[in-house]
């Protein structure tokens, strides 16, 4: 496959490595300083774009690619308040694959998380909390993964009404605690605490390679699909 990389930062570089290892070529690299190169002429030899940029840039990058009939895989977090625009574009012909976290382990964690939430919610002695730790360059908080974990818990716990990104003793609110430390690639925990014990489910990324491999596998999957919005549950048959 010929892959256009949109966003050539920490993730863009690791995706390039993994894509080449899997026999793909990079047809185009777009970063903040050459945005004008994202055009029809430059994309004519591209099969799929892989987009890891910023919350502000992501949606306009997707829509531009769809206009040129290029399918997009994206892992950029923090833009989902604009989800409707992308939904609409996908009904009109856009091919899109989105995951807030492309690692296999985290996608299994999403499933385990819902199961544990279903088991534990009737026990009033436990209170839940989500914690995420990332490198100090991360722009958004809470992380996209922490939001998805929290939505999974709230879906299965009728006592919880919403999540908030602060510590609270309100038992109707699920707190998400965000920490920014050094170069941590990504750590997520769901913690249930009672007077007697603590039950923790935790995922720790050792590097960015797991995210990059997931994104390249998603690109290989997306080029074979029809228009629409896809995610890791489609890729992994979860
Ligand atoms: N889904 C997943 O599995 C993962 C998701 N992420 C998410 O991916 C995103 C990127 O992460 P990361 O690579 O660490 O961040 P970086 O800051 O290292 O890279 C982002 C790159 O995008 C560039 N950029 C900014 N604006 C534009 C634009 N309009 N068009 C094209 N490129 C642009 C930046 O350029 P410049 O430096 O010049 O500003 C930078 O090189 C984040 O939202 C992060 O949360 C990260 C890891 C895994
Ligand atoms: O910004 C990052 O680095 C990461 N962002 C994603 C998120 O917001 O969930 C995924 C991963 O944890 C790394």
Automatic annotation (TrEMBL):
A GO molecular-function descriptor: NAD binding
The protein's assembly and partners: Homotetramer.
Domain Dihydrodipicolinate reductase C-terminal: 105-236
Name by which UniProt lists this protein: 4-hydroxy-tetrahydrodipicolinate reductase
Localisation: Cytoplasm
Keywords on record: Amino-acid biosynthesis, Cytoplasm, Diaminopimelate biosynthesis, Lysine biosynthesis, NAD, NADP, Oxidoreductase
Residues binding (S)-2,3,4,5-tetrahydrodipicolinate: 135, 144-145
EC number: 1.17.1.8
One GO CC term on file: cytosol
Organism annotation: Balneicella halophila
UniProt function note: Catalyzes the conversion of 4-hydroxy-tetrahydrodipicolinate (HTPA) to tetrahydrodipicolinate.
Oxidoreductase among keywords: yes
Pathway: Amino-acid biosynthesis; L-lysine biosynthesis via DAP pathway; (S)-tetrahydrodipicolinate from L-aspartate: step 4/4
Gene3D superfamilies: Dihydrodipicolinate Reductase, domain 2, NAD(P)-binding Rossmann-like Domain
Main location: cytoplasm
Entry's family note: Belongs to the DapB family.
Annotated Pfam families: DapB_C, DapB_N
PANTHER family given in the database record: 4-HYDROXY-TETRAHYDRODIPICOLINATE REDUCTASE 1, CHLOROPLASTIC-RELATED, DIHYDRODIPICOLINATE REDUCTASE
């Amino acid at each position: 496959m010929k892959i256009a990389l949109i966003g050539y930062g920490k993730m863009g570089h690791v995706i390039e490595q993994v894509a080449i290892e899997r026999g793909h070529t990079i047809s185009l690299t777009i970063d903040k300083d050459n945005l004008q190169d994202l055009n029809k002429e430059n994309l004519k030899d591209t099969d799929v774009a892989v987009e890891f940029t910023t919350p502000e840039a992501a949606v306009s990058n997707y829509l531009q690619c769809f206009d040129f009939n290029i399918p997009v895989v994206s892992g950029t977090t923090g833009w989902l308040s604009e989800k409707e625009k992308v939904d609409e574009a996908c009904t009109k012909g856009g091919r899109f694959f989105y995951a807030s976290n492309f690692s296999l382990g985290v996608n299994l964690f999403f499933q385990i998380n819902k199961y544990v939430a279903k088991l534990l919610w009737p026990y009033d002695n436990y209170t839940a909390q989500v914690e995420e730790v990332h490198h100090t360059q991360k722009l958004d908080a809470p992380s996209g993964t922490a939001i998805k974990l929290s939505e999974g818990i709230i879906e299965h716990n009728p006592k919880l009404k919403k999540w908030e990104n602060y510590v609270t003793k309100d038992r109707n609110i699920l707190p998400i605690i965000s920490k920014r430390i050094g170069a941590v690639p990504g750590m997520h925990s769901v913690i249930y605490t009672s007077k007697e014990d603590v039950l923790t489910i935790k995922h720790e990324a050792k590097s960015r390679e797991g995210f990059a491999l997931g994104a390249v596998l998603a690109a290989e999957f997306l080029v074979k699909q029809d228009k629409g919005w896809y995610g890791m549950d489609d890729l992994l048959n979860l």
